[in-house]
């Protein structure tokens, strides 16, 4: 393996609690190098899952957090000026394709569509990446795979993937885990007891029922991990839940009251 990719290998097994048969399905998808799309709300375990799979398959993982200011050059690469003139520097996508990493494009809908299309020739049977400015065509390494994450909740006409992009991927649905499983995850990640973790999950479930009724997005597993970590550090549960669960997701005073009331029901 190329030295530059060694830093992207995940050395220690990430904690990932399987929810269904996603590990086996992903392994099968990787074995035929099918590009994968992980769909689901923010903070429900998509990134942790890719990290786990990269570790399990012993492949380097290059992650790119997508945003609307990102250009195709940010993914593909650019010429840089240095003391000896100009030097080409591969972007994360080119590096992954050239040396054989899994390239994870997180929240790909955030990127502009003209940026997203650079993955097209890599995600069909050509498996190539043209570096137009450099005049090079990279033939993807056999180990290379593209994985994107996508939150269908944010979908709008302006922000959606083109059909021509979507149809290049296999997709796995992610969601918040079932109550007992999510409690187990929160307890494991934070050190709080299963009983406290279960109460946190109950608060989140109340909030998730309000999605679409005044809340854009429910309380995620990630937020529960924050709240649990604060409680484990000795912060009073009410204060921890207000700071980590309620205040971040809404500015609306009535909604805050409703969520605060849910917290006091359980703590
Ligand atoms: P996203 O879906 O936004 O990529 P993450 O993968 O970052 O979310 O998940 C947020 C946090 O939730 C993780 O850091 C981890 O603590 C926890 N988590 C969620 N699902 C799982 C799971 N199935 N196994 C282990 N941890 C999980």
From TrEMBL:
Highest taxon, organism lineage: Bacteria
UniProt keywords, alphabetically: ATP-binding, Nucleotide-binding
Entry keyword Coiled coil: no
Sequence ranges assigned to domain ATPase dynein-related AAA in this UniProt record: 36-169
GO molecular function annotations of the record: ATP binding; ATP hydrolysis activity
InterPro entries noted in UniProt: ATPase_dyneun-rel_AAA, CbbQ/NirQ/NorQ/GpvN, CbbQ_C, P-loop_NTPase
Keyword flag Secreted: no
Gene3D superfamilies membership: P-loop containing nucleotide triphosphate hydrolases (3.40.50.300)
Pfam families on file: AAA_5, CbbQ_C
Location of the CbbQ/NirQ/NorQ C-terminal domain: 182-265
Similarity comment: Belongs to the CbbQ/NirQ/NorQ/GpvN family.
Record protein name field: CbbQ/NirQ/NorQ domain protein
Species annotation: Thioalkalivibrio sulfidiphilus (strain HL-EbGR7)
Native organism taxonomy: Bacteria, Pseudomonadati, Pseudomonadota, Gammaproteobacteria, Chromatiales
């Amino acid at each position: 393996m190329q030295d530059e990719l060694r830093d992207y290998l995940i050395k220690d097994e990430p904690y990932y609690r399987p929810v269904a048969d996603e590990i086996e399905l992903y392994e099968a998808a990787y074995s035929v190098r099918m590009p994968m799309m992980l769909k689901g709300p923010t903070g429900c375990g998509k990134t942790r899952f890719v990290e786990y799979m990269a570790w399990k398959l012993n492949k380097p993982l290059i992650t790119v957090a997508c945003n609307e200011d990102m250009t195709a050059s940010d993914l593909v690469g650019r010429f840089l000026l240095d003391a000896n003139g100009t030097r080409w520097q591969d972007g994360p996508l080119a590096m992954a394709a050239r040396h054989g990493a899994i390239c994870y494009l997180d929240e790909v809908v955030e990127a502009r569509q003209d940026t997203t299309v650079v993955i097209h020739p890599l995600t069909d049977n050509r498996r190539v990446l043209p570096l137009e400015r450099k005049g090079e065509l990279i033939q993807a390494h056999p180990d290379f795979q593209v994985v994107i994450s996508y939150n269908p909740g944010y979908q709008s006409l302006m922000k959606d993937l083109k059909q021509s992009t979507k149809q290049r991927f296999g997709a796995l649905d992610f969601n918040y885990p079932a109550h007992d499983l999510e409690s187990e995850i929160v307890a494991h990640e934070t050190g709080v007891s299963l009983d406290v973790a279960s109460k946190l999950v109950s608060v989140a479930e109340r909030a998730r029922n309000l999605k679409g009724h005044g809340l854009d997005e429910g309380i995620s597993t990630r937020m529960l991990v924050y709240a649990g970590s604060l409680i484990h550090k000795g912060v009073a549960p009410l204060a921890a839940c207000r700071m980590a669960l309620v205040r971040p997701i809404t500015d609306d005073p009535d909604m805050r009251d409703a969520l605060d009331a849910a917290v006091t029901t359980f703590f």
